[in-house]
Amino acid sequence: MKKTVQLVAIAILVSAIGSNLQAQGLLKKLQDASKPKTKQVEAPKEEKVLTPAEIAAIDSASNFLDSQEILKDSRGLSGIYYATFPIRLTFDLSSVPTTYAKKFLINYDESLQKTKFPTLYINSQYAYEATDREKLVRRATFWLDGYWKNVLEKKGVFATSEADNVDNHKYEYVTHSETTDLQGNSIFGKDWLTNFDGTIYEAEPGIFIIVGEYQNEKDIAKAKKFQILPILYKAEKVAAAAKYTNDVAWDKIAELKAKIDAAGNATTATLPAQTFKDPAIKTETLAFAKAEAAKSHPNEQVQYTYIAGNDWNIIRNKNTGAIIKRTLRIIVVVKIGEQCAFENASISQNYDGAAYGKSIWGGSGAPVYFDCKNLNQYK
Which of 108, 270, 291, 347 is least enclosed by beta carbons within 10 angstroms? Predict the structure, then answer.
């Protein structure tokens, strides 16, 4: 009888424990149900930021330009070319980030243009955009005026410094500047962006060398050290292009310039158009030009200077986009003996974050001879 009572008591205890556990389970479910449900959100995936070299490699692999028209010309200049390093492209709309390219279609049009000069065009794949300005980078343009046609006819050298100084600015690359240390020794200054608004040379069939805007071609030794040159080459010339180190490229420029000088003083060149007037700039650039001539070119008599740049060209830091300085194209008109010539020159003004500083003379280039009847055209 006693044993039976014990068993009954145990059963009652087990039943009570089970009921209590069920109650606790039900209570937990109710508590869980009353809690706000949280949705699990996956961490956003970080998108890889492509380097200029990677962007340019994608451009280089594109077949778009291969389907575009390639003109036929007497020198075989037209065709698909590749750059030895990425070229920075600026879209027509300033709000669109820049991109990089290495593949270009060059067309040399020998037919009569509106300018009546044979014209060379450098096209990236973005030059063919017809409807969306956010995807448009207009082609770079070079043309041969009377002076450069004379050089080509007499010496067989294809070269020209007659460039479109608006759209050629959209094809940029980094080069080095020169400064001095406390002992007056030449050392590297800040890197800066130059562009295709300079001189283009055919180094050999299938290979072009471009000397960027405001790069100085007079002192080849310094140019080799401080100034970078882009090489454009056809695919079949890849081995030959590899031989064009910066030193070799500048030696080639020196060789071609000697031939150009030996072509004689053509009188068919015309003075570049004056774009706007600024009496203060004209006065200070005239002083700069006369000082340079007295020091380095005593055979030149500086007549006057004027502005040929469409506007100030703004130079920005390649990483931050901050303004470093601005530059302006200047023409120096000179007489060399009884002959008349003009020289491309420039001034720059450094920016300190609030204002531009004093003008700095960038030097003048080789003389381009013209008919003296036009000597005082922009005086």
Answer: 291
Q: What is the pLDDT of residues 191-207, one digit of tens each?
A: 999 999 999 999 999 99
Q: What are phi and psi of 227, to 5 degrees?
A: -115, 130
Handedness of CA 269, 266, 158, 152 (dihedral sign): positive
The more confidently predicted of residues 39 and 168 is 168
The H helix count followed by the E strand count for the chain is 7, 16
How many domains, the chain?
A: 2
Nearest to 163 by CA among 325, 313, 315, 341: 313
Q: Do 139 and 93 fall within a single domain? A: yes
β-sheet bridge partners, residue 200: 160, 210
**Three-state DSSP state, 148:** helix
- pTM for the full model? 0.65
pLDDT of the residue at 281? 94
Let me know whether 124 and 162 are in one domain: yes
Q: What is the pLDDT of residues 46-75, one digit of tens each?
A: 678 899 999 999 999 999 999 999 999 999
DSSP one-letter string for 235-254: GGGHHHHHT--HHHHHHHHH
Q: Same domain for 246 and 290? A: no
164 and 283 co-located in one domain: no
Assess contact for 163 and 194: CB atoms under 8 A. no
Cα-Cα-Cα-Cα dihedral sign, residues 353, 359, 362, 365: positive
For residue 14, tell me if it sits in a domain: no
User: Is residue 67 in some structural domain?
Assistant: yes
Residue 342 domain-assigned (yes or no):
yes
Q: Considering the chain, what percentage of its residues have pLDDT values greater than 70?
A: 85
Main-chain phi, psi angles of 109, to 5 degrees:
-100, 110
> In this structure, are 219 and 98 located in the same domain?
yes
Whether 113 and 243 share a structural domain: yes
Helix (H, G, I), strand (E, B) or coil at 174: strand
Domain end residue (candidates: 262, 296, 315): 262
Q: Considering only CA atoms, which of 137, 179, 192 is closest in space to residue 318?
A: 192
pLDDT of amino acid 226: 92
pLDDT per position as a tens digit, 224-242: 999 999 999 999 999 999 9
Q: Looking at the domain assignment, is residue 4 inside a domain?
A: no
